[in-house]
Structure prediction request, 210 residues.
Amino acid sequence: MMETNVIVRLQQEKIVAVLRRLPLAKIEAIGEALVKGGIRALEVTMEGDDGKKQIERLRLALGNEVLIGAGTVFTPDRLIDAIHAGSSFIVCPHLDPELIRQANEAGVTIVPGIMTPSELQQARKLGVSMVKIFPASTVGTTFVQNILGPFAGFPIMATGGIDENNVLSFFQAGVSVVGAGSFLTPKQEIESKDYAAITLRAENFVRKVR
Prediction:
């Protein structure tokens, strides 16, 4: 999928479910529960050794109708793993020019993390089409509004501490996409295999955002 199409699709979907350190044996069931609830974009974090396998399994289970990306990508090796697994997009918590160049050369959308106007401008100069603000709940909506003053219209993903209580305020501040992690996939529900509860929460979250 071409980068412009991925960025447009992320903005259409508005929500990315961040799957962080979840059990490999349950990843298909978790993904299916979220998709059943209306989520159409998933980000699998790459901290552990299971990230590549989780992306591959989700790709097989959910097909191409769901955007599946890789998050918390720090190194070129992890980026290569994510691409080989079939990731549609790459998300980093930081700004790394080398990773951006590598992703651009591979033709894969990359969304780096930024915290300053200088970093946002550097990302734009490196050919990035969307940036991530993380941790969003720490910097708050005023930061989003202020940084979008000189960078009006530039797509921003807000991730970190996003839930049903603050999500609308971030969209009102100007973000294009939110990433929601533990709020959508509570540990207790995963341990008890209460996938219906995960689906219901996703449904309510999607309804609120849209």
